[in-house]
Amino acid sequence: MASSLQDTLVTYEELAELELEFDDVETEIIRHQVQLTQPLYEKRHKIVAQIPNFWPLVLEQAPPDIDEYIQPSDSALLLACLTSLSVSHFEIENGAKGDPRSVAIKWEFSENEYFEDRVLEKKFWYRRAEDGWAGLVSEPVDIKWKKDKDLTGGLLSMVKRVWDEDQALEKAGKGGAKAKDKELTPQQKELKKKIEETGLGGLSFFAWFGFRGQRISAEESRLAIEKEQKQRKLRLEGKKVEPSEDDADDDDDDDDELDGLEIFPEGDTLAVTIAEDLWPGAIKYFTQAQEQDALSDLEFESDMELDLEELEEDGDEAPPSKKRKAGGE
Amino acid sequence: MASSLQDTLVTYEELAELELEFDDVETEIIRHQVQLTQPLYEKRHKIVAQIPNFWPLVLEQAPPDIDEYIQPSDSALLLACLTSLSVSHFEIENGAKGDPRSVAIKWEFSENEYFEDRVLEKKFWYRRAEDGWAGLVSEPVDIKWKKDKDLTGGLLSMVKRVWDEDQALEKAGKGGAKAKDKELTPQQKELKKKIEETGLGGLSFFAWFGFRGQRISAEESRLAIEKEQKQRKLRLEGKKVEPSEDDADDDDDDDDELDGLEIFPEGDTLAVTIAEDLWPGAIKYFTQAQEQDALSDLEFESDMELDLEELEEDGDEAPPSKKRKAGGE
Lengths: 329, 329
Prior knowledge:
The structure is a homodimer of 329-residue chains. Chain A contains eleven helices and six strands. The first copy, chain A, has helices at 12-48, 54-60, 64-67, 72-81, 155-171, 186-198, 218-236, 255-259, 267-278, 282-293, 308-314, and strands spanning 82-88, 103-109, 119-128, 134-138, 299-302, 322-325. Chain A has 329 residues and is α+β, with helices and mostly antiparallel strands. The two termini of chain A are 45 Å apart. Chain A is globular.
């Protein structure tokens, strides 16, 4: 099909600028949405806390984009001890002016045979690189596995050690992961080998806690945003702007994948799917689980007319007055 | 996995009520979003109107959910004469208080060898049925095909005739499509036979204009919403409510599909994908098309520094000052 931009008076910059304006508005909408839904998510949290296995059941019905990463042994763990899941937009909490696209995903567990942790929280920061790339970056979260219970076979801890080493090198001014033409350290070589040996098929869902993504510090992101805004302003005033590095080469995006040091290459996409699909759709997935599980004989306690205000105070109970079959959506 | 709602004090109604509250907030967010993005879509409209083949190129890069319905002959038609595509939330335009989820998708064409129409607009109304189902319904839009050019092979016109007959029957108080245990009319039988013969594979994209969806009148929807709100209010006040028909049996949703009278069963889903993916992502898809088409030698007119204000007035031009390769996103 004939291409066309060359025959027109519209520039690439003009389209890119328009996209940035859409981006600004979208960000504001997310901010607004987070504010409006916050009280509802709190109410939901109180209600579902009373339902045993709510989150394991939700995860059992998770859409394929999530389900594909959950191995049978992960399912068994989750069913045994996952008590709560929550998503927060931590950079805009309590009136803070951060990016509403940054998310934290918090998993809570009861005492269990697998690990010592009661809470595992993974944060994703929305950052912009100097080359124009923008997206979510994270830090490895280690898990204190009990003896012989590590579902990642030591991989996650190794990722954490390499990360710590990286941070130390960076602090010492040795460039860390950002250094060009860098030699891999012995630890990095070991990790790379282990990842290659493991492969990604059959990898535990818990390896996701090791996702790092691109190395973009808060400071680098701040400078990149500042620079971009300056250029946009100049362009809007009709001034000439040196072509920036906006046209990021996609190949740069996954340095770490190419390095073979990323334990869970799709970690950011998975985080977005959890935050934008599983989290808002939890009741829908739970209802589906109920239907599937017990099409024939499951009955709900129904029409209890719990006063919601009362519930919010103390989760008080009223006696069930009648029963009814689990209905469809 | 063990089901759990039966062991708790949480009721099905409580979860359903919470979902309705989320629904209310979501609707408000869409309303807000439509308002905020409106000026940007207008600006985009003016810019892309200057780019030949903008919309055919966008459609060429459409995501699989859309692309799967576009046959090669549809592509040829679109490339030959599609000049504009637009999505509007017509029930909330000019401050109207309708449902922001209702959408109209408007296609504009230059004079062409295929049909007489210059504009084809398909509207989707967000409605609620008495049984609790909610979603998009539509009406067939006929196309004035030129001789031997009908890509639907007469199917679309047949759908329109059955629709008209249906409306007439309903007006005459004969129940139309809603009548229970109804006999198919001769026209309906003919349509059903034709759809069976045609099958859905290879069906023209333009058959989508014939999608009808569930038969829910504006009045039925209004009453259903009213009834539901009354029940919600009672429940919130802690009063007993007769179980409503909220648990709509999914099988009821596609009466027409079962009847074999729906020409394009996925028509509502396709409309949503166009409105929520193709429409907001048009520049992204266009840029992809540019990259694919002309990786090697395409050059953009660049750095023209068109003043955007000026552009909005009259699309005035400035001479290109330099060129630059088509960059990435």
